[in-house]
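# nightly structure sweep
# worker-07 picked up a monomer target from the shared queue
# config: single-sequence mode, recycle default, output format = structure tokens
# input follows
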Amino acid sequence: MVKVRAARAAEAEALTGLVMRSKAHWGYDAAFLAACAPELRIRPGEVTARRIVVAEDPQGTVLGLASLEGSAPMAMLGLLFVEPSAIGQGVGRLLYRDVLRRAVEQGVRRLVIDSDPHAAGFYRAMGAVAAATDPTAAADAAAGRNGRLVRFEAAPAPLADWARAWTGGGRAVHVGNVAEFNAQFGDSSLDREQAAAHHYACLAAFYSPSPSALVLPRAVPAGWTGLVCRQLGWTGVEVYDGLVERGPGLVDAVRARPALAARLTGAGEPLVPWGLTRPFGQLTGQPWRPGELRYESKAAAHGLFGRILAEGGHPQIVLPAQARAATRWSAARLLAARARAGRSTVLKSEHGVGGSGTTVVTAGQVRAAGGARAVLRRLPRGPLLVEEFVEGPPDPAAVRDLTYDGFVDAAGGVHEVGAALMDVTAGAYRGATVGPGAVPEWAEKPILAFGGAVGRELAASGYRGWFDVDFVVDAAGRLAPTETNLRLTGPSVAFMVAARLDALRGAGHLVRIADRVELGARLPEAQLDELCADLARACADLGAVFVPAIPTGAFDPAPWLGVLVAAHSVDALDAAEALVRSGAAAVGAMFDAPTPAAP
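# output follows
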């Protein structure tokens, strides 16, 4: 394994030779290299002052070097050169990330990089952005041209405070017990076999910014975990998969393997589940109090929201009316009355995930179906909540669905993670975007205030763990809370990845999770790995990051991928998502039969 260490003064001459060989790799002529030599020379007395480090292989061969020059709050990446024979092997990436890490430790918040035009693509792929103060350099950074140095900047950032508090700032064991969490509620809206839940268990890769192990019900492609680790700079992540192909019993399957259970619980690292369950409590030795999860109920959450609003202090929050229908007959009467008044209605099961068990019914749909009872016959069996439908803004492009994420720590402290913009279609969650500017300014303050109030109530009720609060925007621009989720979620995954990328590549990442990107065809595992690697390279050319989040859906009869994309700007984020969707859809083209030639 290649390691980074401090350079030694006695190596100055040899390091100068490496720098010149690396510069010559790009085809510069002898006259140009001679002109550069005085500036690129490393003198023995400068090695410490310029904070030069080297990357060396296990045999002690130096493969590259980098320097961090200047002092906080602004510093410069003075040198980053790799031995030509080692270019493309990850040495430059290792050195660059080490410079960012050291910059954070020294309080640097702005890192300036004057790049050779041939290296512009590397720095862009590593997350550096073209300096806004130099439009010519910005154009050169985009094209890598003209032979002049191209100025980039990065914003070194420590791991976010909330992320440190979530797992103590260290690594964690991630347990993908999605099906197990869902099954404990027993709602008929939840798939008894939990096939979809086993796909979503792949999100366990992202339950914290730094995993040490992943525990997964289904087998996952080895190439997937390798690519995810490369994209997020993780090493030494152990994967325990294929433990439960059907059914919800992931943690029970771990407990049935004493050696595995001891390995996971004996390393002194926190275990992070999708959500709390009795088997998880038994595995970790934590007391199991099912009452902690009572606000996972949509009716209980609605009551909680009402109590908070009754205390005042949230003028931009409005609560939709909700009634519990004791029987299907009473639900039909409530629905029919609303339909006669021309009102749309939201019918909800007590529990549900990702929009399952939630149906929006218009007055026209009730009439077209032949009445309210006919509508209800098509819905999952079990108790129903009948809720006022919140009409959205008149502009169909306006923001509609938002969410707050936070968590309650073991001591009962509430930590604000942030607000996110959700993609919701016909009541079903499709994805979310987090990061600077993702949520409109007018909405962010009231969301954070109300979400914090919910967190304090959850803490007082005894709940410990992650939670979110979902909102819709009404026609007047007010926010209506619709439910809480006492578990990790798709937006929480995006927050985790944003925290990791900010620490790895510089602050300010926007991250979007798209739950379902359709594939044009089912692919063998090797070809799926190749597609994901191609998409990662193509996104890197845009300065964006592609991470396949849910690979197992690619092997379904109607194949799909869950994906994460990240970038420092909305334009780059949108471009990366469009590239990924078009690339995924296009994989079927290779199987299309050729059109016969005309006679």
